[in-house]
Amino acid sequence: MSVNVSNTRFFALIPCAGNGSRAGTTGPKQYEPIAGRPMVMHTLAAFAAVKRIARTLVVVAQGDGFFTRNFAPVTAAACGGETRAISVVNGLHELRKVGADGRDWVLVHDAARCLITPQLIDGLIDACQEDDVGGLLAQKLVDTLKTERGGRVAETLSREDKWLAQTPQMFRIGRLIEAMEQAGDSVTDEASAMEALGQRPLLVPGGPQNFKVTYPDDFALAEAVLKGRQR
């Protein structure tokens, strides 16, 4: 089904309710300082620089006062859930409450992918805005891929058709709500939910710097990249 792109808008949804248990931080990792600013502020700055984004909504946990204490050009909704999927679904419904239409596009992005750039965001929009399904930033796998059994290599897999999923992932709001609610709370990205509906999201090349800060060593790498950009 094709939809006229001239009447649709672009929204950003940033799930920001996780506790970052693998990061080794004392609090939520998305608020840890990197290159002089809380991590999430680097993420939001990239979206603020994309003029086509009508509104950015950040989903935080109940009782999270970060955006009360720190100004950012976003709407913060304290509707975060126990899983990323719950936070995304709740955030999608919040977007509908603040005026987004089911035919509008939403770009869902991890708060901890703080190295995203306006150029990558614009590239995703350009690639997907006339597509019937939508798509995601991703990177072709360059390393040799192994499966494991009992701590030993069980099999070497072909990397020819393998991609690493990144974010943002961009889909129509109404269709994504349907997909996420059908997929359930354990789904780890929006593209997987769309695939379960029989859709085939478009793969849009991202980049190696658009990684998710997950482990302690990732903070130093992200800081080095951000300081390099500042210079």
UniProtKB/TrEMBL annotation:
<comment type="similarity">
    <text>Belongs to the IspD/TarI cytidylyltransferase family. IspD subfamily.</text>
</comment>
<dbReference type="GO" id="GO:0050518">
    <property type="term" value="F:2-C-methyl-D-erythritol 4-phosphate cytidylyltransferase activity"/>
</dbReference>
<keyword id="KW-0414">Isoprene biosynthesis</keyword>
<protein>
    <recommendedName>
        <fullName>2-C-methyl-D-erythritol 4-phosphate cytidylyltransferase</fullName>
        <ecNumber>2.7.7.60</ecNumber>
    </recommendedName>
</protein>
<dbReference type="InterPro" id="IPR029044">
    <property type="entry name" value="Nucleotide-diphossugar_trans"/>
</dbReference>
<dbReference type="Pfam" id="PF01128">
    <property type="entry name" value="IspD"/>
</dbReference>
<dbReference type="InterPro" id="IPR050088">
    <property type="entry name" value="IspD/TarI_cytidylyltransf_bact"/>
</dbReference>
<comment type="pathway">
    <text>Isoprenoid biosynthesis; isopentenyl diphosphate biosynthesis via DXP pathway; isopentenyl diphosphate from 1-deoxy-D-xylulose 5-phosphate: step 2/6.</text>
</comment>
<feature type="site" description="Transition state stabilizer">
    <location>
        <position position="29"/>
    </location>
</feature>
<dbReference type="InterPro" id="IPR034683">
    <property type="entry name" value="IspD/TarI"/>
</dbReference>
<comment type="function">
    <text>Catalyzes the formation of 4-diphosphocytidyl-2-C-methyl-D-erythritol from CTP and 2-C-methyl-D-erythritol 4-phosphate (MEP).</text>
</comment>
<dbReference type="InterPro" id="IPR001228">
    <property type="entry name" value="IspD"/>
</dbReference>
<dbReference type="InterPro" id="IPR018294">
    <property type="entry name" value="ISPD_synthase_CS"/>
</dbReference>
<feature type="site" description="Positions MEP for the nucleophilic attack">
    <location>
        <position position="159"/>
    </location>
</feature>
<keyword id="KW-0808">Transferase</keyword>
<keyword id="KW-0548">Nucleotidyltransferase</keyword>
<feature type="site" description="Transition state stabilizer">
    <location>
        <position position="22"/>
    </location>
</feature>
<feature type="site" description="Positions MEP for the nucleophilic attack">
    <location>
        <position position="212"/>
    </location>
</feature>
